[in-house]
Write a structure and sequence with these properties.
This protein is mainly alpha-helical. Helices cover 64% and strands 4% of the residues. It contains 18 helices and five strands. It has helices at residues 29-42, 77-93, 98-111, 151-165, 171-183, 190-207, 212-234, 239-259, 266-277, 280-291, 295-325, 343-360, 365-387, 391-413, 418-425, 432-443, 449-476, 482-494; strands at 2-3, 9-10, 117-121, 125-130, 138-143. The strands form two sheets. Strands 3-4-5 form a three-stranded antiparallel β-sheet, with helices on one face.
Length: 495
């Protein structure tokens, strides 16, 4: 320590001290800005381990930004859980995907004041866990044991969920609406569904290259197949055997007409029947579940769809082998060059085929015309892509992406799930003729078994590409449809 002349003590600086900035000098603002920018780049705006809010799961769905009840959970939370389970079970029975079921449950329970909800969905069950703070948790389970074709009911449930999240319904009113939906008569009578199967087959036979007589025979055979399938269902026959029986009936009947020298193309008639038996909706739902992060549900649905496909293959193989044993001469397994009719007629055939599938799937009457027009638009793109030389593998996938996009836009405009519009609209893309030709090579033409195996693999690839294309189109259209669901809900509030 040294004494200054003024008598004050002056502390010596250490030799390794850094230069100091006097307090009177302001810090450099450019350095502060650089430090803030560096902090934002290195450190995220939110902690990386923070859990995602359950309501954020609704982002991108038709139920985003719901009206959330802020009065806290009501005293009868168990009734809300039971209602949500009933809603989920009904949606699964009608063919909804796991993501749609999950977002519907979250939106409904949040609208009724239950925010601490965890949802676990598998192929056949839904588990809800409600854990309010400082209260005993409650878990409820529901198993789905049956399925039915009812796209109209699925559309009505979509509208019900929309009304709930707008705050326009109490839980009691919502429960009454759900009960009314599940007990309401389907829009089309059973005889109309049977006729729709026949008309679809007739249109598809003409679409892929058959003549008028082949269309008429396809009409009769596929109506008979629907009646047989319905009877087997009443007898509780497992789906695999019911599908195999139907596929064998279609194949053997077409071979019988060929044996009788009737001037038809049996491969085309069988192809129409195959398209009716393919689990199209299940494949699209399974692909959605796999992409959206529901591997267990997707695996279960894929396995179920695989056994349906295996039933089709088994039924065709049995019919071909029995026909060969009976002495039926070898079929003319043609490679179709397309319809024999001009393009305007083919467009009408696609429109009719899609409309008939809408009837078979019990689609809401107001959606039949828009869905058929979506199918026609998809076919026109498919036709144009083929003329550009994309090939028979890529062209269906491109058309499926386009149909998936249009289906999302149309469905949101009309207050329906995307699946309801997309599944009927892509039916004409599936390779029924390739499946039959491959099975014929495997079962009868032993010298070209490798060709049959490759053809069957190609058919499976095209089927999965179509299902994936529908899901991709749905996701691509999301940025362009963010305002549609909110506009729909605002119009509902004005009513």
């Amino acid at each position: 320590m040294k004494q200054a002349k003024s008598g004050k003590t002056v502390r010596p600086l250490p030799t390794d001290a850094l230069p100091t900035t006097p307090h009177t000098v302001k810090p450099d603002k450019s350095q502060l800005a650089s430090r803030r920018m560096l902090r934002k780049l290195v450190q995220g705006e939110s902690p990386p381990t923070q859990a995602m809010s359950i309501v954020e799961r609704l982002a991108g769905s038709p139920y985003s930004n719901p009206l959330i009840a802020r009065n806290g959970p009501d005293a009868s939370a168990r009734k809300t859980l039971d209602f949500a389970l009933g809603l989920a079970e009904t949606m699964f029975r009608y063919g909804a995907g796991a993501l749609e079921v999950e977002t519907s449950i979250i939106a409904v329970t949040t609208a009724f004041g239950l925010e601490n909800i965890e949802v676990d969905i598998t192929n056949q069950s839904v588990v809800l866990n409600y854990s309010p703070k400082e209260h005993t948790p409650t878990s409820v389970l529901r198993v789905v044991r049956s399925w039915t074709n009812n796209y109209a009911g699925l559309t009505q449930i979509h509208q019900l969920v929309t009304d709930i999240i707008d705050g326009g319904l109490t839980r009691v009113e919502a429960s009454e609406r759900l009960k009314e939906i599940t007990t309401r008569t389907k829009p089309f009578a059973r005889w109309m569904v049977t006729a729709a199967f026949g008309i679809f087959a007739a249109a598809i036979v003409a679409f892929i290259g058959g003549g008028l007589l082949g269309s008429l025979i396809g009409f009769g055979i596929c109506m008979a197949v629907d009646l047989v399938s319905r009877t087997l269902g009443k007898w509780r026959v497992p789906e695999f055997f019911a599908v195999a029986t139907s596929a064998a009936l279609v194949t053997f009947t077409a071979m019988g007409f060929w044996w009788l020298k009737v001037d038809i193309e049996p491969a085309l008639v069988v192809s129409a029947g195959i398209l009716l038996l393919l689990p199209t909706g299940r494949l699209v739902s399974a692909t959605q579940d796999a992409i959206n992060g529901f591997p267990v549900t997707a695996g279960g649905r894929y396995l179920s769809a695989f056994f349906v496909f295996a039933g089709i293959v088994a039924g065709i193989a049995v019919a071909l082998v029995v026909g060969l044993m009976l002495g039926i001469e070898q079929l003319d397994v043609i490679v179709s060059q397309g319809s024999i009719y001009p393009l305007p007629v083919v467009v009408v055939l696609v429109f009719i085929a899609v409309a008939m599938i809408c009837i078979a799937e019990q689609t809401d009457v107001k959606l039949v015309l828009p869905t058929s027009l979506v199918g026609v638009a998809g076919y026109l793109l498919y036709y144009w892509v083929l003329t550009l030389g994309f090939g028979y593998r890529l062209a269906p996938a491109v058309a499926a992406v386009f149909i998936g996009m249009l289906a999302r836009i149309v469905s949101l405009k009309l207050g329906a799930p995307q699946l309801v519009v997309a599944v009927p609209a892509v039916m004409f893309l599936y390779p029924g003729l390739t499946i039959f030709r491959s099975m014929y090579d495997l079962s009868v033409e032993s010298e070209v078994m490798t060709s049959g195996a490759v053809g069957l693999f190609n058919a499976l690839t095209i089927i999965l590409a179509i299902a994936g294309g529908v899901v991709l189109g749905d996701n691509l259209a999301r940025p362009f449809t963010r305002g549609l669901s909110s506009n729909e809900r605002r119009s509902n509030r004005r009513r």
